[in-house]
Amino acid sequence: MKVQREVETIEIQLDVFCSSARAYKAFTSQTELRKWWAPRVIMSKNIISHKPGKDMKMILTHFRENEYIRYKFYGLDWKDQPETIIAIEIQEKGVRRKDKGEGILICIYHEGWTNLEYKREYEEIWNKATQSLKKLLETEQIEQWWEKEKRKGEFKSATIQNIKEFVNKMEEEAGSKKERIKASKILWQIFDELDSLGEWYVKDNYSEIEFYAKGVKIFGATKTGNIILNWRELETILGRNLQDFADRFSIEQNNLEIHVGSSFEKINSLEIIPELFIRWCKDIIQNKKK
């Protein structure tokens, strides 16, 4: 029987200038939770959804009014991850009173993680959501974090740090597979060099990333170590130069066989000479379509 080991608890502390009653309401009211925590909250069914089509269960199990809230939390489609616990402590910073007083300290603990992938996903959500919560409690202004997040279908906007996490995930899952580790280093060399020239998008589960420049996807990569080229997408930036760039790619990459007529090309990154691929991508970005 496989024993599941817990990973670190998500812990967040917020110093907020508001009353404890106001904070308690923000964590327990369906209307309030929709302002900062998730776009879909149905308290009567214990359902919340941070992402379209992905329902989570959030069940209130314990509470002390204006002091403590405890939820049981799990995903309806989670695998290899038992339910987790969300505990919120609200502490007065001074003499207890109904008004704002000296403010409060909110301590949030999300514990019980055994699946690192799900934990990372919710750590990112908490970091964004609590910024919206603090603004709501102190100013009553609603700034829903999910409205600010740029997305392209299943992919969300990412920073180079998110991409580094993608590479780290590749290496963690590689174990002793030397080829996978080598592939991750090749990909990181490419990502790091191209970072300043475009935008990154990553799948919610960190299984795939995409690199965009001039509004066009230049390439994608998977955590299994493949680079993905979409020739139809590249045609929008290359125009009639597409075939010339495809031929050049093949020659520079040791006469690698490619198929421009297909919708996309999947190439093992171990077959790529990264320095030449980087230069090829830069020239695509600078290309003037004819």
Please sum up the structure shown.
This protein has 290 residues and is α+β, with helices and mostly antiparallel strands. It has helices at residues 20-28, 30-36, 116-139, 145-148, 160-174, 178-194, 231-238, 242-252, 274-286, and strands at residues 10-16, 40-42, 47-51, 54-64, 68-75, 84-92, 104-111, 151-152, 155-158, 199-203, 208-213, 216-222, 226-229, 265-268.
Structural write-up:
This protein is an alpha+beta fold and 290 residues long. It has two domains: 10-148, Alpha-D-Glucose-1,6-Bisphosphate, Chain A, domain 4 (2-Layer Sandwich), CATH 3.30.530; 151-286, no CATH class. It has nine helices and 14 strands. A seven-stranded antiparallel sheet has the order 1-7-6-5-4-3-2. β4 and β5 (68-75) form a beta hairpin. α5 (160-174) runs antiparallel to α6 (178-194). The longest helix has 24 residues, at 116-139.
Averaging pLDDT over every residue, what do you get?
A: 90
Q: What amount of the residues lies in strands?
A: 25-35%
Output the CATH class name of the largest domain.
Answer: Alpha Beta
Could you give the distance between the termini?
Answer: 62 Å
Please trace the helix and strand order, writing H or E for each element.
EHHEEEEEEHHEEHHEEEEHHEH
CATH architecture of the largest domain: 2-Layer Sandwich
